[in-house]
Each structure stands twice: as C-alpha cells, then as structure tokens.
Design goal:
This protein has about 90 residues and is an alpha+beta fold. It is about 40% helix and about 30% strand. It contains three helices and four strands; from the N terminus they run βαββααβ.
C-alpha cells in the first residue's frame, strides 16, 4: 500500500541542503520512494503554526519502504546532510 511522508525544512545551511539534493533522489529510490511535490513557499490554510520555509511530500511504494529509507545505516551520511541543513521534521502519513 502506498505511503506518504510530509517533510518540513527551515534551512540554516543552504550548502548542506544543496549537497543533500544531489544525493536524495538515489537514496529515496533505493527504498521505493520519490518526491511527489515540493514547495519553497508553503502556506498554512488553518491553524496557529508558522509555515516552514520548505515543505515536501514523499511517496513510497510501502510504509515499510519509508521506514527502511529513514533507518538505512548506509544512508546515515545522506540523512546527516538534510538534518545538518537546518530544522527538519518528517511525518509518515
């Protein structure tokens, strides 16, 4: 069953984000994932929270694929680029 992950980023190190983007696609594909939608100008439709600088929706073939992508020890350096680029969060839907 298809699974989705919602990623938010507030970037403090654009160079690390650029380096992450260079390798993110292959890392996602390794576990059946891809970027479905990305926005550098998300807006809040409802609620009293600040909009992140960036928001991304990832699509995975399965929920396990998403979990394995995040837990894959071979991708630790890739994930470190993302987390080192600023404040990030990932919510598995």
């Amino acid at each position: 069953m298809t699974a989705y992950a919602f990623v938010t980023l507030d970037v403090t190190d654009p160079d690390k984000l650029t380096a992450y983007r260079d390798v993110a696609g292959d890392a996602l594909a390794k576990h059946g994932g891809k970027v479905l939608q990305a926005s550098a100008s998300p807006s809040i439709l409802e609620g009293d929270i600040a909009a992140p600088q960036m928001a991304v929706v990832l699509e995975f073939e399965t929920r396990e694929g998403a979990e394995n992508w995040r837990a894959d020890p071979d991708l630790a350096e890739t994930h470190a680029l993302r987390t080192g680029s600023g404040k990030t969060s990932i919510t598995l839907l």
